[in-house]
Amino acid sequence: MEGISLAPQILFYIGSFPVTNSFFWLVILSFTLIIIFITITKSLKKVPSRFQSLFEILIEGAYGFVLSVVRNEKKARKIFPLIFSMFFLVLIANLATFIPGQAAITLKRAEGTIPLFRTIVADYSLVFTITMISIITTQIVAIFVHGPFGYIGKFINLSGIKEFFVQLFKGNFKFGILAQGFLDLFLGIMNIVGEIAKIISLSFRLFGNMFASEVLTAVILFLAPFIVPLPFKFLGLLTAIVQAFVFSVLTLIFINMASEIEEDQIIEQATI
């Protein structure tokens, strides 16, 4: 059995940009999906065909799920395109692994024979890119909802410490306010850690599961190439669907949490 590489293999260079087998597969799938969706949208009819009805049921079901989570029609309409696109891209990228015969298509290089296609989400750099789109979108939503200062205040909360010194200058030494101030500051730092943890948890969950599935399949095929790998293939298929759903749902939850206004902000806006 050939060694299983954690990093994708480089097929060729465009200038100084290395084109790996996972990136090459991503480009092909992306263009294929674009062509398919353009074809579908141009062939829509008032009296839907069976395929169009199935497509509409899929879209309506996905939108209904997003709406049930955010519970706001206006918000759901804004979030849905991103969430559904992420789900569909990750799902197709995962399912593309199971297209038969792709492992047999190889390219001869000086360092040896390398596969032309590789599992997209088994390349951490691509998974990290998709994750950063999710996290950056979450931060942008939080800034728009809470404002720049409200957003920064979530991570650097000095209001308690400021109040302590205000009371101290008035001759009132209140240790409780100081303790609360340091606690708020500590919780702000924990919020920073939490945002970083989102990147790690989202990307490592998707990458780890799909790369492990790729390794397990390769090992089982080497040890027992007939019949025995089938249960593991079905397990990998289930993992591919579940991971696409989990990734998109977590992104949905993160964005929804970032767009929520706390009770004290609602009271403050009401009084204004």
Description:
The termini are far apart. The protein has 8 helices and 4 strands. 72% of the residues lie in helices and 6% in strands. The protein is mainly alpha-helical and 272 residues long. β3 and β4 form a beta hairpin.
Lay out the secondary structure.
Blueprint: E1 10-14, E2 17-20, H1 21-42, H2 50-70, H3 73-95, E3 106-109, E4 112-115, H4 124-155, H5 159-169, H6 175-223, H7 229-258, H8 263-271
Antiparallel strand pairs: 1-2, 3-4
Helix pairs in contact: 2-3, 3-7, 4-6, 4-7, 5-6, 6-7
Number of helices: 8
Helix content: over 70%
Low-confidence stretches: 263-272
Distance between the termini: 69 Å
The order of strands across the largest sheet is 1-2
User: What is the mean predicted local confidence, pLDDT?
Assistant: 79
Shape: globular
The largest β sheet comes out as:
2 strands, antiparallel
* Total strand segments: 4
Strand content: 5-15%
Q: How many domain modules?
A: 1
Summarize the structure.
The chain is mainly alpha-helical. The protein contains eight helices and four strands; from the N terminus they run E-E-H-H-H-E-E-H-H-H-H-H. It is 72% helix and 6% strand.
